[in-house]
Amino acid sequence: NDMTPPTREERVEKLKGLGSSRKRVEDARFTQGKGNYVDDIKLPGMLHGDFVRSPYAHARVVSINAEAALALPGVVAVLTAKDLEPLSLHWMPTLAGDKQMVLADGKVLFQGQEVAFVVAEDRYIAADAVELVEVEYEELPVLVDPFEALQSDVVLREDLEPGADGAHGPRRHHNHIFLWEEGDKAATEQVIENAEVVVEEMVYYHRTHPCPLETCGSVASMDKVNGKLTLWGTFQAPHVVRTVASLLSGIEEHNIRVISPDIGGGFGNKVGVYPGYVCSIVASIVTGKPVKFIEDRMDNLMATAFARDYWMKGRISATKEGKITGLHCHVTADHGAFDACADPTKFPAGFFHICTGSYDIPVAYVGVDGVYTNKAPGGVAYRCSFRVTEAAYFIERMIEVLAMELNMDAAELRRINFIRKEQFPYTSALGWEYDSGDYHTAWDKALEAVDYKGLRAEQAERVEAFKRGETRKLLGIGLTHFTEIVGAGPVKNCDILGMGMFDSCEIRIHPTGSAVARLGTISQGQGHATTFAQILASETGIPADSITIEEGDTDTAPYGLGTYGSRSTPVAGAATALAGRKIRAKAQMIAAYLLEVHDNDVEWDVDRFVVKGAPERFKTIQEIAYAAYNQAIPGVEPGLEAVSYYDPPNMTYPFGAYICVMEIDVDTGEHEIRQFYALDDCGTRINPMVIEGQVHGGLTEALAIAMGQEIAYDDIGNCKTGTLMDFFIPTAWETPNYTTDFTETPSPHHPIGAKGVGESPNVGGVPAFSNAVHDAFRAFGLRQSHMPHDHWRIWKTANQLGLHG
Ligand code: PCD
Predict the structure, then answer these.
(1) Burial status of residue 497 (CB atoms within 10 A of its CB: 0-12, 13-18, 19 or more)
(2) Ligand 1 centroid to residue 287 C-alpha, Å
(3) Is 566 left (phi over 0), alpha (psi -120 to 50) or beta?
(4) Whose Cα sits closest to atom 41 in ligand 1?
């Protein structure tokens, strides 16, 4: 035999397991236009739905006349709240314990609100018929400012009993939703009152919107013969959608099949349940035909879940030497017309109380007031774990402002306040237990990589040159050290609509040694089919190329809470590793039997069990799988499958050090990003190439948000940014080059030590870009200006600082 057996290294290589930059298996279909998205689903006799939407931000609906629309050939039905009412579907529960109109019931509360659902034989007829529905409105006073809303006599939510408690406790005004508090208020106030140095600042994180390439949509098909409802849709949490659909409709859960096919980006936009989904289901039940609903871009930007809109008033105290002693934060949170925030039930402001960031702050307090206004509902985690981005932006701005007040270098101020390596696991003043971290190492590596000292010297020279009139460009160095918190559960703290936030993996090894694994999560572009196979390859010894990963079909996949909040790796990834270990435990018994030794006399080696001390005697995982199906093994059932449901003991806390170097033209307000350095620590890295792609994508979204993207309203509630002409999406032209780097501090409680990474670049990126803008003007006294830092706002800042001469 001339075949030399592969070396151990070659066998490891062949697996393409943990740590391998395996190419994404999904890309074969995505790069050839062969993905299968909701709008690709075409069923015989399928009808199409479109919405009549409110042009007003606040108005009474006096009458709806659908006669002309119904007379248009091809129009099948026009649904209004009156049609949904007998089914109790004219309102629906939100993820935040509030309720939301599915179709306007008596009045409308934001521009673009769904008023009637037109169903027609094709999409164009539906759109034409929408124009023919006559709605008479009576305008009401509009509230777009949350501070004003809390003072106003205008009652937005007439459906709520005045004075009655909301889902999160007492409401002190008819437009107030909740006050949520965490930390020790009295102690914090006392520390701040007696502190040597205190700074106070209002930090606004503007309203924006996730903007996936594919908008939201669904296809509902009610098969009246066998009583089964199939629902395809852009769902980041398909199992939760099934449960909610069952509870709302009364259709038993086994009779509902929810399928998330390929999803063209989620970014939190596809976590919630929207009126379009409900209307497509009702229309399918009413007409007996499949009904498709696909948003256009304006529908998406104006009516589906917004993000942020937090007014964060902070006070931070320190000693003269810069040791932080306390942090106080009050947030006025604009939730729009309905509280439809996507947060775990117990946390109406999500994980905002991670706002002590990477710093060892002895005492802190956070209070968040939720407020109704005449804006679209939502409040989703746009590439962030439930309000972590707001928290990171807040603390990273407060640190910069404090550094100014102390007349200190902001990198040094961070360094002296970081939680030290030996303090982990570290319990923060606001109650989180950070699992692991090594901030100083990451920080030093980052500062050295960009030659921080050199940059500061260059910046100082630039300021002098500017003052001498030799240049009109300033240099900003945007620093950020962020700490993320991802991987919800644990089930004991985290649930959504009562469903505990665990996740799952089920794996089946076929007789010839290849496998299929199914998970409760759902990829929207992250590359799960690539990376979860890598986890299993390292655990089971089956090459990743021989493992199919499936997600998103509730008839086949085990129950799970879905993909958002960077929870797939921390939760489903852990379930996957543990399912792989269950396979290995059974494989060990089979191998021992085949090798005629005791179970304890074999040991695992990459892709096989080997007899201890006799390396030539082994059984590969493929031989073991074959035997599992084809050989009677006493005391062992046939087959090789495993299921694991995983309830994480804690979240994971990825972190990173980002530095943005930006040139700013004082006269035009234009900026140029000269360098962006991003160091991420997400614990054990599964696929470095996928991680790099995630960081590039997240940074580009951060760039968009910090430098231009916003959902803006005028005084009467007109959405001014409902198209991509006005809503900024960076192209290759605006996007800078990024340098990525890493340190690797494993999570101590995750089976393979991995933390999430998908959101980190957005959480750390936004403050890095914004701090760069502020830092450019630091020498001229700028403390705080509001994002997005578009050219106009930067010009205005320069103007206000008197830099235009
Ligand atoms: N990884 C690795 N390693 C580690 C980690 C991680 O490798 N250590 C990888 C994994 O496997 C995947 C990724 O990476 O694949 C990611 O992951 P994560 O972090 O875990 O996450 P997930 O869960 O999976 O996902 C989620 C995220 C989010 S959240 C978001 S927004 C975004 C991100 O993801 N989205 C998206 N990214 C992305 N990408 C894409 N492409 N698309 C999309 O859509 Mo939210 O909450 O929803 O807002």
Answers:
(1) middle
(2) 39
(3) left
(4) 525
Catalytic residues: 236, 383-384, 759
Give Cβ neighbours of residue 238 (< 8 Å, ≥ 6 apart).
258, 259, 260, 522, 552, 553, 554, 557, 562
Residue-wise pLDDT tens digits, 315-373: 999 999 999 999 999 999 999 999 999 899 999 999 999 999 999 999 999 999 999 99
Backbone phi and psi for residue 146, each to the nearest 5 degrees, phi listed first: -65, -30
User: Which residue in the block uniquely carries the two structure tokens 């939680």?
Assistant: 419
Q: Could you report the predicted ipTM of this complex, rounded to two decimals?
A: 0.99
Predicted pLDDT of residue 1: 57
- The Å distance, Cα 138 to ligand 1 centre, comes to 45
β-sheet bridge partners, residue 507: 517, 642
Give the mean pLDDT of the chain. Answer: 97
Of 496, 566, 655, which is best to mutate to test ligand 1, by the most ligand atoms within 8 angstroms of its C-beta? 566
Nearest CA to ligand 1 atom 37: 758
The Å distance, Cα 491 to ligand 1 centre, comes to 21
Give pLDDT, residue 2: 64
| Helix-then-strand count for the chain, H and E | 20, 32
pLDDT digits (tens, 9 = 90+) for 680-698: 999 999 999 999 999 999 9
pLDDT digits (tens, 9 = 90+) for 221-245: 999 999 999 999 999 999 999 999 9
Give the contacts of 614 (CB within 8 A, at least 6 positions apart).
Answer: none
What is the rounded CA–CA span in Å between residue 369 and residue 146? 10
